[in-house]
Amino acid sequence: MARPTSLTGLFLFVACLLSSGLSVAAAFQAEIVDQDGKPLPNVVMTLQGDAPPPVFSLKADMDQRDKQYDPHVLAVHTGTQIRFPNSDNIRHQVYSFSTPKRFELRLYEGTPSDPVLFDKPGIVVLGCNIHDWMLGYVYVTDDPWFAVSDKKGLIRFDKLPAGRYHVTLWHPQVADMLPQPGGEIGVSATDLKQRFSLSIQPLSPDAPAAPAPSTFGDAFNKAVSETAK
Amino acid sequence: MPSIKLSVKLRSSFQARVACVLILLLLVVVGALYFSVKAATNSAIRSQAAEQLQLGTRVFERLLDVQSRRLSDGVQLLAADFGFRDAVASGDSATIRSVLINHGKRINATDMILLSMDGKVLASTLDETPEGSQFRYDHALREARRARQSTLIVPLQGQPHLLVEAPVLAPLPIARVVMGFSMDTAFARELRSLSNLEVSFLTVDMQQPGQLVSTQPPAMAQSLERLMLTNATKHIQELTEYEQHSFLSKTLMLASTADENDNQVIALLQSPLDAAMQAFAPLDQNILFIALISLLASLIGALLLARSVSQPVRALAQAAERIGQGDYQTPVPLKRSDELGLLATAFNSMQSGIAEREQQLAHNALHDGLTGLPNRALAMERLGSAISAGRPVALVYLEIDNLRAISEAGGPEAVDLMLQQVGQRLPTALRAGDTVAHLIGGEFLLLLHNTASDGAVATADKLQQLLLKPQRIAGHDVALDCRMGIAAFPEDGLAAEELLGRAAIAMKDAEQIPGRIQIYEQGRDLAHRRQVTLIRDLRHAAANGELLLHYQPKLDIRQGRVRQAEALLRWQHPQFGMVSPAEFIVLAERTGSIQILTQWVIEEGVRQLSEWNQRGLRLQLSLNISAEDLLGPDLTDRVSALLKHYRLPAEQLIFEITESAVMREPEQALKVLHRLRECGISLSVDDFGTGYSSLAHLKRLPVQELKIDQSFVRDLDETSEDAVIVRSTIEMSHNLGLKVVAEGVEYAHSLRLLERWHCDTAQGYLISRPLTAAAFEAWVALPLGSPSVMVH
């Protein structure tokens, strides 16, 4: 999971390098914790400011590995084409009923030929039709700066032009899955470190979980219900 | 002899009683058996049903659980259907409703509701849950989910429903689909087929009971509903009955909320007892059958047993009655070896014993023990039968007179021997059909059939001669004196007792006549009866004031004056009137009443004398004293006391004593006479000439007077033999210093003769008949004329 982050960072870094000639830039590191003060991974942070937007790639990958989406949360800019490679040796059927992007990739193996264009901002929840517990989130944003917190709850923007930015935070478990305003930050020539706290909700009990090792009873029940069907 | 009531009533008969007791006992046993079996089977049925109910309840719960889970799984699968999720995620309500209906049908859900995550109805096939409203069971569903209950049972539209909820994942839960399954009759039947219990469901929604779902027939719906509503909260088993069907019932509360919704779903499980009871019905039938058979068998057995006892008992009772009625001939026909047989044998021997003894008794009752002759009863019976047949018959009443002499000579044994011999000899003189009966002592009664009085006299004479022949008894030669009285039917009477009485009277009369055989004379029994009455009344005559004294003057011939009188007793009988002394004095002497009479006579005479003395009439009064008076102990004392009492001189009294009275016990009589004489009372010998007294004897008596019996005086004339006797008696008496009184002087020439012969005193009708006291007083007061004048 470190790789995409560092990759994003690389993009950002490149973007910073490109704009460094024009203005002063500094690194901004955000530490995000939950309401209990624990580091919170998978938090999407977007920044909006007056500074000219950086250059960012409009291509991204959402891998499926060990019957999980990888990464769990993917933040992309509006108009990004996302590929859904399948690293498992079984088939998956990726779908989404989310309003920003409804789509379905029929059972497939490997990497499908066409990427999926996410052309509307919003949150797209990904599921797999044959693995109910497989959940992935694509956060499609219009903001130029965006990143996802790592396992330690850290987000780092290396060359952020000085200026003021509106911070928006989001996590799959925030209330009603609505992006939360994170306040404003002012970036000057010096590096900035700031701690954000985001209150999240416990995982919904309705959310499907990976099946536990099956007992005979369950198997029997399943068989019965399937026969009944 | 009261006859035994043989027609024994069935109710009280031994047979019926034995049968009753046996049957009652058997009934008790069978009843006890039946009820204990019934109780045991009932409790077995109950416990079996209870077990079945318990088991069925578990099965029911399990079934409900399985069904719920099955439905839940089904619904979850359905909710996971991609098309379904796609449709739901589309947000188009028409699409959503159609997919709800479509997918609901797949699983046979009756109701489909799509809820938002916060419980709002997004789409519904139910009218009562409009879109946009809060689903009323949302809270309950959440609770159920939290409790990991796969389904929720709720009342919905008046029927119980299984509600199953599943989240719609897209892939996050975006909605909840709720499917309702009606717990309808088919469902209940399915449960019944598996649990073997009758299943009923009832909902209570807003305190309003819904429609009953039941596997029971609709007729029971109302009572089932009532039962479920009352027992909803009690988890007990109880026995319920509906018209011949009984169940063990248990209510289960499947769902109950106490909130504003206030709904309940109640299940009633019932284990039918009928089936179990049916299993025991053959047993009941068998018991009944066995009971009936054994009752019948025991009834027959009891009747046979009782019969085997009661029949011989009845036969014995009949035999006893027969014996009671005097039939001793018919034996009891009972050939048995048991106790009853013994009894029958005893009956037979008793019967013959009784017969023998009765014969003996009958013989004894009708025969004389000593002579073996018929007794009075038998003789009377034979007489009675002769009378009723109208056959002439003569009775000869025979009495042997010299019985006492034989007894004195040979003792009582001799008398018995003599009587036995007489008993043997008498019949020999009679015809074959005649009867000789021994009555008592020396008395025999002979019944001579077809014989009149004359014939009887001939026979009686023959018998008399026969008995007069001397016989040797106990070493003595004895000739028997006997007298006989004869009465004949029909001449002398028509009744047996009357005839016997008359024969007896005739026999008594025979004593007086030389031939000593007397035929009954008409009216003799009347005289006899008069005698008996007189004898009876004599004893009370004095006390009743029926006696009175008449006075007959005694004329002093030489002086021609009356200075003496004889008191003569008269009896005014209330029935017969004046009774002659000749009649009643004899009776009084014979029956011992004479002393009473004499006592009265003495007292009355003394009293009268004393009365006359006071009036100046001084007389000497003669009173008759009987032999009994003379021999009595206290005559002298009594007379002395009387004289003293009336202050009368003893010289005014003369006691007349007959010769025979003195002759009976001369010594004793003499003693009394001397004492009387010492008192001053004069003594006179009455009826002189009729007895056997000698002059020598007369000389020893302290008498002053002698009365010549009237039989010598009455027809006295100069030439008769009486004249010699009278004249010599007078002379002799005068020589002895005695005065002479002549009684029965009726004619003047007699008086003249007496006067010539110097007789002292005359008494008789010529002078005066006996007069009452008053008349006598008046007579004495008349101017005294000569006796001849008086005669004329």
Write structural notes for this entry.
The complex is a heterodimer of chains A (229) and B (792). Chain A has 229 residues and is mainly beta. Chain A has a 5-stranded mixed β-sheet, with no helix packed on it. Chain A contains 2 helices and 17 strands. Chain A has helices at 2-19, 216-228, and strands spanning 25-34, 44-49, 59-61, 63-65, 68-70, 73-77, 80-83, 92-96, 103-108, 116-118, 122-128, 131-141, 145-148, 154-161, 163-170, 180-187, 192-198. Chain B has 792 residues and is α+β, with helices and mostly antiparallel strands. In chain B, helix 1 packs across helix 5, helix 7 (273-324) runs parallel beside helix 8 and helix 15 (594-614) runs parallel beside helix 17. Chain B is built from 25 helices and 27 strands. In chain B, strands 19-20-22-23-24-25-26-27 form an 8-stranded mixed β-barrel, surrounded by 5 helices. In chain B, strands 6, 7, 8, 9, 10 and 11 form a 6-stranded antiparallel β-sheet that branches. Residues 1-8 and 786-792 of chain B have low confidence and may be disordered. Chains A and B meet through strand 11, strand 12 and helix 2 of A and helix 1, helix 2 and strand 5 of B.
CATH architecture of chain A: Sandwich
**How far apart lie the N and C ends of chain A?**
42 Å
CATH class of the largest domain in chain B equals Alpha Beta
CATH class category of chain A: Mainly Beta
CATH structural fold name of chain A: Immunoglobulin-like
Instruction: Report the strand count of chain B.
Output: 27
Arithmetic mean pLDDT of chain B: 84
**Corresponding CATH architecture of the largest domain in chain B:** Alpha-Beta Barrel
* Oligomeric assembly: heterodimer
Order of helices and strands of chain A: HEEEEEEEEEEEEEEEEEH
Helix content of chain B: 40-55%
How are the strands of the biggest sheet of chain B laid out side by side?
Answer: 19-20-22-23-24-25-26-27
Computed CA radius of gyration of chain A, to the nearest angstrom: 20 Å
* DSSP helical segment count of chain B: 25
Give the strand content of chain A: 35-45%
Shape of chain A: globular
